[in-house]
Amino acid sequence: MLAASIVEETLGGDMPSPVIQSFFDEPSNTASYVVHDPCTRAAAIIDSVLDFDVAAGRTGRASADQIIAYVEAEGLTIEWLLETHVHADHLSAAPYLQERLGGKLAIGREITTVQAVFGTIFNEGSAFQRDGSQFDQLFDDGDTFAIGSIQGVALHVPGHTPADLAYVIGNTVFTGDTLFMPDYGTARADFPGGDARQLFRSMRRLMDLPRETRAFLCHDYKAPGRDSFVWETTIGQQRSSNVHVHDGVSEDEFVDMRTRRDATLSMPKLILPSIQINMRAGHLPEPEENGTRYLRIPLDAF
């Protein structure tokens, strides 16, 4: 079903404007968001970051603590912690934020597909549940939720991974890794379970939203010639000028470009720790008998 039709049927014609505060983590090029209803002060946190020094194997909470400080200063009540997908480039801070601020932790129902694939890659035992039960809510395509008086809808937009969601909240959309800034293009589609053809259809689905819809992205990598990081655009700008998928680009043209481009890309530096933790809803592995937590590094698996 067309994204615009789902949004119209579930949210109606009145699209209020939520208040949005962004937090950009430059080491992982990740934008996180606090979205709140100005009438009720109810809020959601989208795609949070747990700091991770890969060389030292050390986690940190400075980025998450910035979000906590903002939420407390603004007097917000967290109702949702929303993940757009199982990130391969940063660790999620959702469990820490949930412990401090409350809220329900949610992701797309296809997380079970990701857990099945990577549970095998990381040789997880039977103790690792592959049913998404680590999360409080699994969204299907078109499911609705509320942030105070502002309605939201989850849209399934696979291609980058099988489980990607975009969240339409009022007159905004949080696209996750499907789209980048128009001058940078689109997400890769070569991870296990990724599919460039699905990605094209998902992006065109998002571009069916009203042109004036504000689009907030999960990452920015500063396109050549641009001096600053930017993570907000509009659906209209994506349609008119996205270098990979603007109006007029065919599905076959995109798939050919994306396939050739992905073949030149190296794996994200945090993919192995990120996926192991994020497929567990951001929960760290349990300590072993010596009190230390460990991650696995599968050799020659990618």
Write the layout of secondary structure elements.
Blueprint: H1 3-11, E1 19-25, E2 30-36, E3 42-46, E4 51-53, E5 58-60, H2 62-74, E6 77-82, H3 94-101, E7 104-108, H4 111-121, E8 137-139, E9 144-147, E10 150-156, E11 165-169, E12 172-174, H5 196-206, E13 214-216, E14 232-234, H6 235-241, H7 251-262, H8 271-278
Parallel strand pairs: 3-6, 6-7, 7-8, 12-13
Antiparallel strand pairs: 1-2, 2-3, 4-5, 9-10, 10-11, 11-12, 13-14
Helix pairs in contact: 2-3, 5-7
Give me the count of strands.
14
What is the rounded distance between the termini?
34 Å
Q: What is the approximate shape?
A: globular
Beta-strand proportion: 15-25%
Instruction: Report the sheet with the most strands, covering strand number, pairing sense and barrel closure.
Output: 6 strands, mixed
Mean pLDDT: 95
